[in-house]
Amino acid sequence: MKFSSKDFRVKEGDEVDLGKWPTKVEPVYKSKEHYQKLLEEHVAQLSSLQELHYASDRYAVLLSFQAMDAAGKDGAIKHVMSGVNPQGCQVFSFKHPSPAELQHDFLWRTTRDLPESGRIGIFNRSYYEEVLIVRGHPEILHSEAIPDDNKAIWHDRYRSIADLERHLHVNGTRIVKIYLHLSKEEQRKRFLARIDEPEKNWKFSLADIAERKFWKHYMKAYEECLSATSTREAPWYVVPADDKENARLIVSQIILDTLKGLQMSYPKTTDERRQELLEIRKQLTN
After folding, report:
1. Are 69 and 187 in contact (CB under 8 A)?
2. Is the dihedral of CA 244, 249, 254, 255 positive or negative?
3. H/E/C letters for each residue in the chain?
4. For 39, what's the count of Cα atoms within 13 Å in the CB-facing half-sphere?
5. Minimal CA–CA distance to 255: which of 18, 115, 16, 76?
6. Spatial distance between the Cα atoms of 81 and 185, rounded to a whole number of angstroms
7. What is the C-alpha to C-alpha distance for residues 230 and 128, in angstroms, rounded to an integer?
8. Residue in 181, 180, 157, 170 with CA at minimum distance from that of residue 232
9. Which residues of 114-130 are buried (b: 16+ CB within 10 A; e: fewer)?
10. 181 with 72: CB under 8 angstroms?
11. Which domains does the chain have, with CATH numbers?
């Protein structure tokens, strides 16, 4: 199967119905060996482009991952970014906000970790938690000391996020947002595997089962979020996630297409710098 990353992109203004977006598509690979070959090719290309991105020092790139539990965020980041130089890439995970973070606006704790120019920043969950998980857990919202009369809070937060992402884009940050679209049945299978396979026991908790009860609520929250915040400058991609290997290939292609779309080049050496280098070379060879 051949595909374009645009096949998974949510167009600005579209009303998202996740029931119409597949959680599994025809695989890009023909066998496990073919998958490994394709992934290695993607990783090699990403490594080369990341080096150019770092040297060019013109843009920052922010990759934001969101998904239901067991959708494969950690695995996608681990496998897809395995060839990237850690010096130019950082991963941040955002869990339940700390007491200090709750004293600030909802964007504060994540904006502190935005990538610098020349770097790739990866948010494993992000400020989008504040319009997703928080909707299912009003106690978190209450702890944020939001004014009681703010009835339009979700609309206002969507607008704040869109304004932030527009500001970042204008100032050189390119944003890619990936939603790993997992079916409830596939999540059930992966939870069972976490119970049955001892080496995966640490990944599972009773809280994971409790969250499954809110599945329909979360799907609605995701639909509203994707519809409200996917823009031309900061698009969402809905990646079918029931097949982990296929999802990784799709994710890596989306990142590759993003980096290839940037106007990057290695810094040019000036005549003065070239002369300096020749003088140094003379010293080293005498």
Report:
1. yes
2. positive
3. CCCCHHHHEECCCCCCCHHHCCCCCCCCCCCHHHHHHHHHHHHHHHHHHHHHHHHHCCCEEEEEEEECCCCCHHHHHHHHCCCCCHHHEEEEECCCCCHHHHCCCCCHHHHCCCCCCCCEEEEECCHHHHHCHHHHCHHHHHHCCCCCCCCCHHHHHHHHHHHHHHHHHHCCEEEEEEEEECCHHHHHHHHHHHHHCHHHHHHCCHHHHHHHCCHHHHHHHHHHHHHHHCCCCCCEEEEECCCHHHHHHHHHHHHHHHHHCCCCCCCCCCHHHHHHHHHHHHHHHC
4. 24
5. 76
6. 28
7. 12
8. 170
9. bbeebbbbbbbbbbbbb
10. no
11. 5-285 (3.40.50.300)
Measuring CA to CA, which residue among 18, 219, 221 is closest to residue 138?
Answer: 221
- 278 token code pair: 């020749």
- Give dist(CA 47, CA 51) in Å, integer: 6
Of 168 and 146, which is predicted with more confidence? 168
Contact of 70 with 194, CB cutoff 8 Å: yes
**CA separation (Å) from 37 to 32, 184, 249?**
9, 30, 11
Whole-model pTM: value is 0.92
| Amino acid at position 32, single letter | K
Q: Identify whether the C-beta of residue 93 lies closer than 8 Å to the C-beta of residue 66.
A: no
How do residues 236-285 score in pLDDT, each as one tens digit?
A: 999 999 999 999 999 999 999 999 999 999 998 888 989 999 999 989 99
For residues 136 and 68, the answer to whether their CB atoms sit within 8 Å is no
Write down the pLDDT at residue 143.
85
Question: 60-74 pLDDT, tens per residue?
Answer: 999 999 999 999 999
Q: Could you report the per-residue pLDDT of 73-127, keeping only the tens digit for each?
A: 999 999 999 999 989 999 999 888 888 888 899 999 999 999 999 999 999 999 9
